[in-house]
Structure formats: C-alpha cells, structure tokens
Amino acid sequence: MAASKALLITMVLAVLTPLAATAAQQTVTNLTLHNLCLYPVWPRITQNIGLPAIPDANDTAGRLDGGGEGLVTLAFPPGAWSGRIVARTGCIDDDDDVCDTGVAPAPTTVTQVSVHGPNGLAEYSVSLVDGFNVPVVVTPHGFEQGDQCPSLGCAVDLDVDCPSDAKAPAGGCRAQGQGHFFKQRCPDTRTTPTDVEATPQRCLQPGELKIVFCPDTSN
C-alpha cells in the first residue's frame, strides 16, 4: 500500500512539474512607457537580431507627449525577448530619424531589457555608455514578494551639471570621459560595457516593466 502511494505521488509530481515550468514560461510581461518630461519624447523600441518586434499596430508608442500625457502599455511577444528602448527628443514628426538627441552620434540614454527568460527571469538596465539625454528609471510591477526587482536607472538630469566640454550642441551630455561623473550621480546605471548597477537584481515573472522618462524626484 505504501509503495502504491509513493508511486502515485511520483506520477503526480512528474505531471505537475512540467506544467509549472510551462506556466512560468508562458507568463507574459507588459512594457509600459510613461513620459513625465515637460517635452515630447519619441521612443524607439528595437528588438535584438532574430527576435520579433513588439506589436504596436497603431504606433501608439511612436510619440509620447510631455507632462504625463504620454502613456502607453504594450505586450512583449511570447517567448524569450530582449532589446533596447531609446527616448529621442526634438524629432521631426514626418522623419523621426532627424532628432536633436537619441540618434547617433548625439548623446543617448539607452534602456536594455530582456524578459521571459529561464523561470520567467527579467533583466533590465539603463546604460549611459552612449551618453545621457533623458532621465530614465525602470520599475518592475506585479512580481512575487521577496524577488529582487528594484527600480534602476537615473532620475537625475545630468545635462544640468554636465561639464562644458561634454555638452552636446542640441542638448545632452556626451559619454567620452564622463564615466565617473555619470556613475557618481547615478550608481544604478551602467557606464561601461562591463559595468553593473550598485543594486542587485533577480526579478522573476514581473507582470510589467515600467519605463518612466523624467521620473518625479520630489518624493
């Protein structure tokens, strides 16, 4: 009798374990973009090579008006996905490759994200390797209590105190020689290709990654 119960438990676990793993893999994370800057931003979402684009049939994320009005939520495609989000500024609407900042060689704050990894792992960072043009913070929502899902990024407007020799003509702060300046003011960013944030992360199955441009620093 005991042997039969043990066999039954083993069979149940054998069925449930793959189902649980499948459920974790099928957890879909949303991407929310919110613009609190006083000016519009033109986000550019670029998937890594070989991956599908994030569906946005009506180009709702193409331009986000300032003052909190620009707010959009998109669903990441199922399966492992990674890519980058750049907030461009001063763009010409009918030619969004013509922008003051956010398009090379102009300074560019880059948000890097990956979702739907092993066990639903999500990873995210704000990179200043290509310079700074807009304050950006990434905050996960809808994750299990106890997961390491901190807000990461740079809420400080580094353009204000940017050294004069690093200021770009149309705005923003160039990266060359400014790694220490950036890291000192925004420790939870990446300022070199091998850099990591001061705050550790291990975020599993968040329901949302929210990227805020010019987050409120008054609280």
Number of helical segments with 4 or more residues: 2
Q: How far is it from the N-terminal to the C-terminal residue, by CA?
A: 63 Å
CA gyration radius, whole angstroms:
20 Å
What ranges have pLDDT less than 50 throughout 5 or more consecutive residues? Answer: 1-25
Strand order of the largest sheet: 3-1-10-7-8
What class do helices, strands and sheet pairing give?
A: alpha+beta
Q: Strand share of the residues?
A: 25-35%
Count of DSSP strands: 10
Shape: globular
Helix content: 10-25%
Question: What is the N-to-C order of secondary-structure elements (H for helix, E for strand)?
Answer: HEEEEEEEEHEE
Q: What does the average pLDDT come to?
A: 87
Question: What does this protein look like?
Answer:
- The chain has 219 residues and is an alpha+beta fold.
- It has helices at 2-26, 179-185; strands at 30-35, 42-47, 70-75, 81-88, 110-115, 121-127, 136-141, 152-154, 203-204, 208-213.
- The N and C termini lie far apart (63 Å).
- 35% of the residues are buried.
Q: What is the secondary structure topology, with strand pairs?
A:
Blueprint: H1 2-26, E1 30-35, E2 42-47, E3 70-75, E4 81-88, E5 110-115, E6 121-127, E7 136-141, E8 152-154, H2 179-185, E9 203-204, E10 208-213
Q: Which key features would you list for this structure?
A:
single chain; 219 residues; alpha+beta; 5-stranded mixed β-sheet; 5-stranded antiparallel β-sheet; globular; disordered N terminus
